[in-house]
Amino acid sequence: MSIKKLDLESMTVDDLWSLHEKISRILSARITSEKQELEKRLAVLNRGRSAIEGDSGQGFGSHGKVRRKYPRVFPKYRNPATPSETWSGRGKQPRWLVAAIKSGRKIDDFRIREEARAKGRQQRA
Description:
This protein is mostly helical. The protein has three helices and two strands; from the N terminus they run αββαα.
């Protein structure tokens, strides 16, 4: 690889800009070429994986994966200020509950009574 030494400091703005455009074109072409080559290699690897596992390549990552059905989780806590805001007790606590706990209230203050929950289930069924 022979590169003649360029004195960039002495080049005019037009010459520097032309050099920049030429380098950008070459880089763009090489990146595109390398991306196509990597995509080909990935396609070959994916075909091999699906042949080994005996499926059509689905079920991996987030593409084509079928989620398992989980039973419905009913709410266990309710915001008394806004009764439509509920929380099942799973995952991150909602903001209204975090704020109430920080102000000194107990989580059990917001628990939905069992008979109210059972009544709600019967209505939905």
